[in-house]
Every structure is written in structure tokens, then in C-alpha cells.
């Protein structure tokens, strides 16, 4: 039988009691047989046997059941001998053999005990301890006792598992543990300490002492380290198997197991690792803080009441507060409508960790008004707030919407301008034809000139519409801005008047630009007129400055990005009333004007913007109300091969010529005027009102080879101008062509590429302009 912790307790007493009980019963039976009257002692013993709370039986020779108590009957069945019942329910053959061997020994008068495992009703194990005691070899009677150990074994198993878990925890704890004897030799060391020292536990417990692992000799080393101050705690330096040193903190307890015999129990912390981990954590925190502080998004931790607990630099900058915001409510930096949105968002995230509120747009003050997106997410007992600056995004959205609007208006203006150009071409052209017959002094001359002048004014307005929509035809050439301003100076002084002081300050070594001279003059005139009107009431100074500008990196101008490079700048400054901030964003809108009705078209600055952008430049504006305005035009510098072109001076020349011209124009009035002009200049003219008609005319006549020049409109139904030229040039590749159109040359030039012999005459054109262009192109045929 086992002894110790799990002592079987009353089993020896029970066996003695059972043996005495059986003896008493046998004796009582014999006496009762002799005396024929009951023995009170036997009766008491019989009752005690029956009431015993553990299974007990007495079997006779051959295993015959002689007596069984109630516990045995309940456990193994009434009338079933305990060895038979146990053998039938044994879990396996080995268990049955144990019961059989025990029964055979008991039959020979030799007692014993076994522990067997039964299978319960659910198939689980049940541990049973059984004993067999011989009641006399001669009688063959055996006392059987049984005890169910299942609960005890389950408790033992649970405790063993817990013990193993505790041992594992102890072995692999993040601290080292050791115990040394009085000589300092290791009696115990856990796996953690052995790993730190680079040794196996067998090496440590095989005779190594504390001296073998200390990096430096220690005087007065007993089983414990002689720390100064508190003898129970201190630091030391250990040496691992590879010669590496590491700092440790030791907490030690000295035990006296018996007089004169000491040992210690010690707990060790690896200070080198801990300090390295602390430094790594501190570095990680510093990196995270630097990352958080440098992030362009504002981040703050809010408490449950919406007060700022922690924040990064961007958050403080966005709300416009210097220093720490700790303890200040976020609502303090918001307007009343945004405070309500913040309160709603805080309620949404109050539900718990990770709960998120819908992002809301708020406005913040600070150094500049900002539009921000506020996002709240539950966390830390309050909320985490994220602020995303949407100011530039909103500006870009507004700029995009404005550009879309301007594009739509520009397309509309361009379409209207094209139709007007056809009408104006006819008006100007027929006026020129009338003027050939009505000279000065003729009573109709003044009327015709009035018609032509108004048509020219209308043409100028159309040019402004096309400039605004960036669809006007430019004739760029290399220009010297100084020369252009010198040519304009007299006109500008007349425009300004006597009440305004006018100055032109030229920059030194000014670079050349490539631009349309007439359009550049239009830009300068429009800006000067605008400046004059701003000083009309009080007078002042109007200054035009020119300078070179070299950008090493790109620059933001009015919501646009101006690339790095070399530019020529033209500034027009005035000391007038200035432009109010609230209308600054609309000054380039078409038809926007602050003048009285009838005093302006609202196209002046829109035209400036359109021409500058089509030339590849940029417009910057600075203004202060009451102090004046400066418009700066930045045009890309052009490296001219042959230098800037001198300003042309017109001269009278003979515009007559000879040759056969095919004129294709779907506007009858324009075609009629153009044909008459060309015929008066000596040309033979074939007319066609469409591309199809022109092709039929060529096929039915002498062929395309007989044509010296093709003049065609660009936009026509079905076969347009470029398509017509492509077909005709298949038969006559060197045929010269003049396109006439109210649209910009760029709109069709990419369709025909850079083919030679292609020229362009924009509408509206006059008699002289048409004749001059044809003379220029047909030079080799001129008489």
C-alpha cells in the first residue's frame, strides 16, 4: 500500500475490524448452534458490517459469496462476488489478471492489494483499490474490501498538471533563479539563468560555483554576495560561457537549514537586457513622437468631456494656438455651428473603443482660416481626433469648378465669335469695296467709314472674346519687350491723361520673348486702362517695370504652379483704390466689372488672362485697398537664334497678281466679297460653297493641276477644309493653301501637321489683308 501524502487511512483498522467481526460471527454461530439463543456481540458486529460505507464481502472456498454489505451490493450488484464484478468491469485484460492473481493468492491464505482501472458507464476511467485478507487457510474464507479512488486520482492529476505548469513558469520566467550551498556551489538554477550564462543546467549543477560566473572576484564571498547597504539586494556583473559580461540585479535570501549550514535562494534580473529594452522602447517612443509631430495631420487625444489631453504639433498649428493645449476644450477653437457638430460626433463615439463618427468639416482660425475635416474615433476613455487640412483641396475644387465654368463660357464665346467673324468679314469687306468707289468728299464716304469703324470695333470685341476663351489666332514671333513698350509709350500717355504720373522702368539685359505683338500690346493697354480707372478720382502714379526672373524651383501663383525656369516680367503698378479681398477671386471672370453700367464690358482682365495663358505665361496680382495694385505678367524667356524681330512698319505696295484661285466658303457673303476682291486684283477665281462642290468642280474641269492656289474655310459640313486639302494634294502635292477661319489656327493645325505651303488668314479680314496674303503666297505668279 502507498503511504505518505495519500495514506489509505482507516484500511488497517477496517481489516482488523472485519477479521474480528468474522471471528466473532463464526464463534457466535457455533455458540448459537450449541445454545440455540442469539449472541448480542455477533448481532452488533453483523449490523456494523452491513452498515459499513465501503464495499465489503466475505467469500468462501471457490469464491462463493458468503456475505456482502449494502455498499458492495450497490456498487457491484446484489449476489455478485466482488472479484467477479470487478473482473467483468475491468478496462482491459491486464486489470482482469490483477484481480485473478489477487483472488488466487487469497485462496491460498495469502492476503494482498491491487489498484485496478474500471470503465464507467460513459467510458471514462474509474480507479478502484481492492484488498483481500485471508480469514484462515483452513477455512478458505476471504475478506474483500474496496475503495473508489477516482476523485482522489483526478485531484492528484489536476495538482500534478498545475505543479508542472508552475514549474514551467518558474523555469522559463523572465528572471533567473538560483540556490547555492554554503560553499557557493549551485544546487539549483532555472533554465532562464542557464540560458543567460550560456551553459546547461547540468554544467551549473555539476560543481560550478558562484565564483565561476562572476566577472570580477568578490572578497568575502559566502553563499551570498556581500552587498553594501541592504545585504539582500545589489548589483553584480556575470560572465557568460563565451566571455561576455552582463550586469545583473540580485535579490537574495540567506537560509540556515541547521546550525552552521547556510544556503541562499536568489532571484536575478538581467539589467543589460532590461536597459537595452528600455532604451529601445524610449527610442521607439521618440521615433513615434517625432513621426507624430512631423505628420501633416493633426492628432489629439480628447477626454470624455472633449478636452485636449495630448496633441501633436500639427494639431496645435491648425487650431492656431501656441504651446500646450492640455486641458482646453476643442470646442473653444470652433465656431458655434461647428461646436454642435463636435458635440454630435463626441456622442457617437461615446459608445466605446473603436467607435467612429462620421467625418465633419469645420473651420479653424489660427494664422489663416482653414477648412478641416474632423474625424473622431473612440479610444482611451474619450476620443482620438484627427484634423485634415482641406484648405488647399477646397481651393483646388473651387479652381476646378471655376475652370470648368470658364471653359464652358469660353466654348460658348468661341462659337459666337466664329459666327460673328463671318458676319464681320462681309461687313468690313463690302465696306472696303464701297470705299473703292466712294472717295473722301463723296457724301456717302462718311457713312461707309462709320459702318467700317463700327465693324472694326465689333471685330475688336470678338478678338477679346476669343482671347478670353484662348481660341484667338496668335502670330508669335521673337520680341524685345523694351522695343514694344517704346512703341506703345506715346499711346499709353494719351490714354492715361495729365492727372496721373507715368513712368516706365526698363530692366537691364532683358531677355527676349516669343509672343504675338498685337496681343501683347493688348495686354499692356488693358492693364494700363484698368490702372488709370483705379486712380481716376484722386490721380497717382502708374509705373511699368520690366525685369528678368529666374526661378530655381516651381512657385505657386494664384492657385497655379509656375515651373522653374527663366522668365521676363512686366509689372503694371498703380497707387489707386486697390481691389477688395472679397472680389479678388473674380477679377478674371468674363463680364465681371465694378464699373457703372455702360462703362465697361467686363472683358479687360479676362482678355489679359486668356492671352497670357495662351502665350504660356502666368499672371500674379497683389493689391491693398487704398494703396494700389500690381499686376505682374511672367512670360517664358525665348532664346532667339537671330535676335528679336524689329517692329514692322507698314508700307503701301502693289497687291495685284495673276493665277487661278479656287475659293471654297460656305458663307455666301464672305465668298462673294472675297471673290470680287481677288478678281479686282487680277486673279481668276473659281467659287465653291462646300468641300463636295469643290471636288466636283475640280473633277469636271481641267483638273487640280490647273489651280495655283486653294483658299478654303476650315469648318464646313461633311468635307471640311483639312479633308479637302488632303484629297486635292493627292493630285497636286505642292499646291499652296490658305485657310480662312474665325477659329484659332491651333484648332486645325494639328490635323495637317507641319506640311509646307499651308498658310492661315484669320477672320474677319479686310480687302487689303486678303489681297496682301494672296500676294504673299502667290509671289512667284505676281505680274
From TrEMBL:
<dbReference type="InterPro" id="IPR003661">
    <property type="entry name" value="HisK_dim/P_dom"/>
</dbReference>
<keyword id="KW-0418">Kinase</keyword>
<feature type="domain" description="Response regulatory">
    <location>
        <begin position="660"/>
        <end position="778"/>
    </location>
</feature>
<keyword id="KW-0808">Transferase</keyword>
<feature type="domain" description="Histidine kinase">
    <location>
        <begin position="415"/>
        <end position="639"/>
    </location>
</feature>
<dbReference type="InterPro" id="IPR001789">
    <property type="entry name" value="Sig_transdc_resp-reg_receiver"/>
</dbReference>
<dbReference type="InterPro" id="IPR003594">
    <property type="entry name" value="HATPase_dom"/>
</dbReference>
<dbReference type="InterPro" id="IPR004358">
    <property type="entry name" value="Sig_transdc_His_kin-like_C"/>
</dbReference>
<protein>
    <recommendedName>
        <fullName>histidine kinase</fullName>
        <ecNumber>2.7.13.3</ecNumber>
    </recommendedName>
</protein>
<dbReference type="InterPro" id="IPR036097">
    <property type="entry name" value="HisK_dim/P_sf"/>
</dbReference>
<dbReference type="Pfam" id="PF02518">
    <property type="entry name" value="HATPase_c"/>
</dbReference>
<dbReference type="InterPro" id="IPR000014">
    <property type="entry name" value="PAS"/>
</dbReference>
<feature type="domain" description="PAS">
    <location>
        <begin position="162"/>
        <end position="214"/>
    </location>
</feature>
<dbReference type="Pfam" id="PF13188">
    <property type="entry name" value="PAS_8"/>
</dbReference>
<dbReference type="InterPro" id="IPR005467">
    <property type="entry name" value="His_kinase_dom"/>
</dbReference>
<feature type="modified residue" description="4-aspartylphosphate">
    <location>
        <position position="713"/>
    </location>
</feature>
<dbReference type="InterPro" id="IPR036890">
    <property type="entry name" value="HATPase_C_sf"/>
</dbReference>
<dbReference type="Pfam" id="PF08448">
    <property type="entry name" value="PAS_4"/>
</dbReference>
<dbReference type="InterPro" id="IPR011006">
    <property type="entry name" value="CheY-like_superfamily"/>
</dbReference>
<dbReference type="InterPro" id="IPR013656">
    <property type="entry name" value="PAS_4"/>
</dbReference>
<dbReference type="GO" id="GO:0000155">
    <property type="term" value="F:phosphorelay sensor kinase activity"/>
</dbReference>
<keyword id="KW-0597">Phosphoprotein</keyword>
<dbReference type="InterPro" id="IPR035965">
    <property type="entry name" value="PAS-like_dom_sf"/>
</dbReference>
<dbReference type="Pfam" id="PF00072">
    <property type="entry name" value="Response_reg"/>
</dbReference>
<dbReference type="Pfam" id="PF00512">
    <property type="entry name" value="HisKA"/>
</dbReference>
